[in-house]
Amino acid sequence: MKKMFKFTGAMLLAVSMLTACAGEKSGGSSEGDGKRITLYSPETPDFTKELAKKYEEVIGGNVDVHYAGTNVLVNQMLAEKENPKADVWYGGGGILPFEAAVERGILASYIPDFAADWDITENGIKLKHEDGKYVGVEIFVLGFSYNPELVSEEEAPKTWEDLLDPKWKGKIQFPNPAASGTATLMVMDQMMRQGEDKAWEYFEKLVDQANSTPDSGSAPTKAVAMGEAHIGIGFDFMAYEQKAKGETVDFIVPDKTPVLVNPATLIEGAPNAEGGKKFIDFLLSKEAQQIMADWYHIPINPEVESKTPLSIDKVKEVAVDLDIDWVNENYDRVRNEWKDKFQ
Hints:
This is ABC transporter substrate-binding protein. The protein is α/β, with parallel strands linked by helices. The protein folds into two domains: 9-139 and 260-315, D-Maltodextrin-Binding Protein, domain 2; 141-258 and 321-342, D-Maltodextrin-Binding Protein, domain 2. Helices cover 34% and strands 15% of the residues. It is built from eleven helices and twelve strands. The chain has helices at residues 45-58, 70-79, 96-102, 181-194, 196-209, 219-225, 236-244, 273-283, 286-294, 312-315, 324-342; strands spanning 37-41, 63-67, 88-90, 121-122, 125-126, 135-146, 172-173, 210-212, 231-235, 250-252, 259-266, 298-299. The strands form two sheets. Strands 1, 2, 3, 6, 7, 8, 9, 10, 11 and 12 form a ten-stranded mixed sheet that branches. Strands 4-5 form a two-stranded antiparallel sheet. A hairpin with a 2-residue loop joins β4 and β5. α1 runs antiparallel to α9 (286-294). The chain starts with 36 loop residues before the first strand and ends with a helix.
């Protein structure tokens, strides 16, 4: 891979600051081009509030943050396609919703200098879009949360097949793939590895093991922390964030599993495209990456150390090579088939 993560001074250029919560407007004078940046993000409002504070400290300016779920924001961007309101879209549980949005014509092309020398894909991790429609700013790993008071680390499952052990019957939770992108990723990964027929057989058994399949991607991890499940399927940061709050939960990285970047993108026809580009630059800066690390996300900037036991060097060895074209072609079909089979 060519010079991945080469740091440049351009990361500190930006024109605006993030606001604390959904739709809140920041005060003060604006620097740079004098225009507000409008950010659409499904990320935690408190998390974006921290980004806002740091952005104000480093750069100054004005950014309006609009918070909603990923699907809501995508539908809003589609409705606004002829008259875009957003400049930047950041976050959404990985690349899948961004890949789906590429074909809908709402994403512009922009790759920061910081990421210019990255390969498109390394060790199964797609780092940026081949036409520059998005760039990864952090790393998410799909795996297993577990409650150490109920399950020892040695006993905890280490592979996806381990989840079918009879000892876990009635003790597992995973999100509903008909509603959760996190769980849809899990289903499609198994289909690409086993073929569809064997994957459906696998999930018939896994459904029988579960005591609940909530719609929320983070709900199984919270259930594990509360002792309502022994094992939960979700992203790594969900477990480590709960653990940092004092909850009884830890995380296992399976031997082979999806590892995704969580991206940012410039919106096609953005009212403040130049400001949007500078904001995406900022997301890859050391200052912004430190905030991501402090929220237990795996940073992509090598100058920032992860607050969890995981790093991109550690997880790239377990990353499966996802066929993104196949995912895009079959995403809706698979979700609908899950609904027909299990709901």
